[in-house]
Amino acid sequence: MTSCTVRVAEGPEDIDACFAVRKEVFVVEQDVPADLEYDDLDATAVHVLAVTADGTPLGTGRLLHGADAAGRTGAGPEVGSLGRLAVRAEARGLGVGAALVRGIEDAAGERGLTAIDLHAQVGALGFYERLGYTAYGPQFLDAGIVHRAMRREF
């Protein structure tokens, strides 16, 4: 585990750092079109940021809740949606992703949510399973990448 701090992003500098990590991971590495990566849900999402002691961004993720999550999950208002989880290449395998997921879960609990849904790239299913998520439903394409829905109840 690398030493990092996970916090809810606050202010334009934190949001810019979240977007920069997403651009590096999704747009550059995975060739996701930028117009698919960034959407209007970013304005109301809770963004979580992992940084080193000197403030270097390592990873990010977002939590949708309320109507925004319901539109994505099809579930009730008590279920949030975890998405856009991205860890910079040099920080992978060091526990940053797990710390981000736990940070998003904490933010969900603070908002009274009782479960989180997510759409995992199939290569990441094992990662989420180790964190207590269970896959359901068929595989599907999102931005040209095979995904599967997962959920964790609190």
Automatic annotation (TrEMBL):
Entry keyword set: Acyltransferase, Transferase
GO MF assignments: acyltransferase activity, transferring groups other than amino-acyl groups
Domain N-acetyltransferase: 4-154
InterPro entries on file: Acyl_CoA_acyltransferase, Bact_Acetyltransf, GNAT_dom
CDD domains, sorted: NAT_SF (cd04301)
Protein name, as recorded: Putative GNAT family N-acyltransferase
Species of the source: Streptomyces candidus
